[in-house]
């Protein structure tokens, strides 16, 4: 699937990317107007961690950072642990000067895989972006890359994602109820982990270890009462 994403991205010309970026930026900006008034059961800035039994190839062994809800719809997020064999400097004409540590493209999800979204870690909110965590912002603005290359914007961490993940209203909540996902608080260090491909296994270990630690005293108490 993601090799196909790379091939499609490689064939896309800059004008088409410009249209996609503007469309995504418009959607994201519209979300700002309604996000804080929206009443949603999933908070902004959480990780969905796929349980081992979740076998959907789109989300198997994934960690998804959930952002503001879509306008009138369900949650929006990006998969943070699927690096692709693709780089911004190879895909976007004029992006050859993107810093090496920011050049990697990640598979953000099955929706609009030809489009790019960016997560940026910054003390100052970039223009045309949505806040996801205290110092992490989501953007679909192509100009952000140009600003970073020109040194106009300095950020300690940056990730580019091909596509994103989205759910219809109530769909994700139903998946959680059925036991497909763990839901935990997101953090910037995990979002921008140096070895993104290891994030899922590390979080599963953390979650299951914590669950065992909580359950052990309860089991011991039950045994004592028998």
What does this structure look like?
By secondary structure, the protein is α+β, with helices and mostly antiparallel strands. It has a single domain (2-197), classed as VC0467-like, CATH 3.40.1740. It has seven helices and ten strands. It has helices at 2-11, 14-35, 88-91, 143-149, 171-177, 188-191, 199-225; strands at residues 46-50, 63-66, 76-79, 83-87, 104-107, 111-121, 129-133, 136-139, 157-166, 181-185. Strands 1, 2, 3, 4, 5, 6, 7, 8, 9 and 10 form a ten-stranded mixed β-sheet that branches. A hairpin with a 2-residue loop joins β7 (129-133) and β8 (136-139). It is globular and about 45 Å long. The N and C termini lie far apart (53 Å). The relative contact order is 0.19. Residues 1-8, 10-41 and 214-226 have low confidence and may be disordered.
Biggest sheet record: 10 strands, mixed
**CATH homology superfamily:** VC0467-like
- Rg (CA only): 19 Å
The backbone outline, from C-alpha atoms, is globular
Number of distinct beta strands: 10
CATH class category: Alpha Beta
Strand content: 25-35%
Residue share in helix? 25-40%
Give the uncertain stretches in residue-range form.
Answer: 1-8, 10-41, 214-226
**In terms of structural class, how would the helical and strand content be classed?**
alpha+beta
Total number of distinct structural domains: 1
Q: What is the fold-level CATH name, i.e. the topology? A: VC0467-like
At CATH level 2, the architecture is 3-Layer(aba) Sandwich
The rounded distance between the terminal residues' Cα atoms is 53 Å
């Amino acid at each position: 699937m993601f090799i196909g994403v790379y091939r499609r991205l490689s064939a896309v010309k800059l004008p088409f990317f410009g249209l996609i970026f503007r469309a995504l930026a418009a959607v994201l900006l519209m979300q700002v107007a309604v996000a804080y008034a929206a009443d949603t059961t999933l908070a902004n800035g959480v990780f969905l961690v796929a349980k081992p039994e979740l076998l959907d190839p789109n989300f198997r062994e994934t960690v998804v950072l959930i952002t503001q809800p879509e306008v009138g719809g369900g949650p929006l997020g990006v998969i943070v642990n699927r690096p692709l064999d693709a780089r911004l400097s190879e895909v976007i004409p004029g992006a050859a000067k993107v810093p090496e540590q920011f050049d990697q493209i990640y598979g953000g999800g099955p929706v609009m895989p030809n489009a790019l979204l960016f997560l940026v870690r910054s003390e100052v909110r970039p223009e045309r972006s949505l806040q996801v965590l205290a110092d992490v912002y989501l953007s679909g603005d192509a100009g952000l890359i140009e600003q970073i290359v020109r040194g106009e914007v300095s950020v300690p961490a940056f990730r580019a994602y091909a596509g994103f993940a989205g759910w219809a209203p109530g769909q994700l909540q139903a998946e959680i109820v059925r036991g497909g996902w763990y839901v935990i608080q997101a953090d910037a260090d995990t979002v921008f982990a140096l070895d993104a491909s290891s994030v899922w296994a590390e979080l599963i270990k953390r979650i299951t270890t914590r669950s065992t630690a909580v359950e052990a005293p309860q089991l011991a108490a039950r045994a004592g009462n028998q």
